[in-house]
Amino acid sequence: MSHPEIDLVVYPDECDAFGHLNQAAFLTLFERARWEMLRHGPGMDVFSRAGAWPALRKTVIDYRAAAFPGDVLRFQQLLTHHGRTSFTMRQTARRVRDDALIASAEFVFVCIDREGRPIPVPEEFSQFMNAGRVVTGDVQRLMVHGVNLAVEVRGEGPAILFVHGYPFDHTIWRDQIDALEGYRRIAPDLRGMGQSDAPDLGYGMAIYAADLAALLDALGVNEVILCGLSMGGYVAFEFLRNWRPRVRGLVLMDTRAEADSPEARRARDATAAIARERGSSAVAEAMLPKILSPATLAGHPEVVERVRALMAGTPVPGMVGALAAMRDRPESESLLPTLAGLPTLVLVGEADVLTPPDQARAMAQVIPGARLAVIPGAGHIPPVEQPAATTEALQEFLRSLG
Questions:
Q1: Would you call 142 helix, strand, or coil by DSSP?
Q2: Which of 251, 344, 375, 387 could join 382 in a cystine, given CB atoms 3.0 to 4.6 angstroms apart?
Q3: Please, are residues 233 and 252 in contact by the beta-carbon 8 Å criterion?
Q4: pLDDT exceeding 70 applies to what percent of the chain?
Q5: C-alpha 160, offset from chain centre
């Protein structure tokens, strides 16, 4: 079951002197959309029947574009967090005629009784809203910044946020997610990759990092051990620039701190042209010999096929967007010495030709107190090529955090 989309018309009396839908009226439309959704489901009296009322405690709205009289706005709504007495809803409003994202909003509610005391969220409401979440196994889809992101969430305990590289998805962490019991393992597909939406525009390290911060907010997670591989490391650097207090441990895996050289920038553009003209499969074939170690290529055909299929399945817009994001990323070398006090593991495949061990070793030496782990027999993606050794190195680092 999915929640019904609600279409609402913008009327002239809801607009300001310039003809734009005003912000106060927008709040009213968001509220109307919520009640209309309930009218199509358990009923608008679903709270009053339980002797409860959803009291609004916090609202964050991101206005993206103007709406005008006569525009029809389509509202989608999703439950992103569910506590005992509170819940969080994510709503988006898109203009029907051109599918433009007009605004997105997050609303935090606490259910109260007639005396204003917190009481449990009505079960009927919870069942209705949770039925609208798209879940496959441990993978769910959450709306973040107007984009649906797929994320696998497993277990309880201290949170680990796994950030994959380009052009992969969260399944590169499959063995680590299975093995790291005692932790809350959070592994999203970045926008443009895996099962997440792949918009034509809207990519960049700052955008990827902001998506992750909003995703953690939606999941009710404040602090994480941040683990990024390759491009995921670039995203981790950006996350640290903006949300350092939320990171209690850092794993930098087969990545680098330097910005792209002019030659590397030109190579990114050339790869993007291949993706546009010949598709993701052509990029995958060219990347395989650089991504995997000689031992993997020669002795593990099942891993080769898995990685080939994973890369070939990346949507072209996501691939092109990631290439531009990597091309334009800032340098992070100046960030490394400032990470004093943050437990850090630098991990690299012994046969990685894209981010070689010497480069990883130099990065570890600059980060105060950082550890280095070199994984034998692995190229650029140790979690897939040598999962047991990679997991063991992660477990040792996690134990050191206490």
A1: strand
A2: 375
A3: yes
A4: 97
A5: 13
**The pLDDT of residue 132:** 41
Residue 247 · residue 254 · CB < 8 Å: no
Phi, psi of 209 (to 5 degrees): -65, -40
Using CA atoms in the order 366, 372, 378, 384, what is the torsion angle rounded to 10 degrees?
A: -100
pTM over 0.90: no
Instruction: Name the pLDDT band for 190 (thresholds 50, 70, 90).
Output: very high
**Residue at token pair 């993978």:** 139
183: CB partners within 8 A, 6+ apart: 155, 157, 158, 159, 160, 225, 398
Check: CB of residue 343 under 8 Å from CB of residue 367: no
Residue 292 — very low, low, confident or very high, per pLDDT cuts 50/70/90?
very high
SS3 (DSSP) at 357 = helix
Distance in Å from the first CA to the final CA of the chain: 42
Q: Spell out the SS3 assignment of 281-301.
A: HHHHHHHHHHHCCHHHHHHCH
Q: Which residue has 């990092």 as its token pair?
A: 209
Residue 204 tokens read as 């960049």
Q: What is the pLDDT of residues 205-241, one digit of tens each?
A: 999 999 999 999 888 899 999 999 999 999 999 999 9
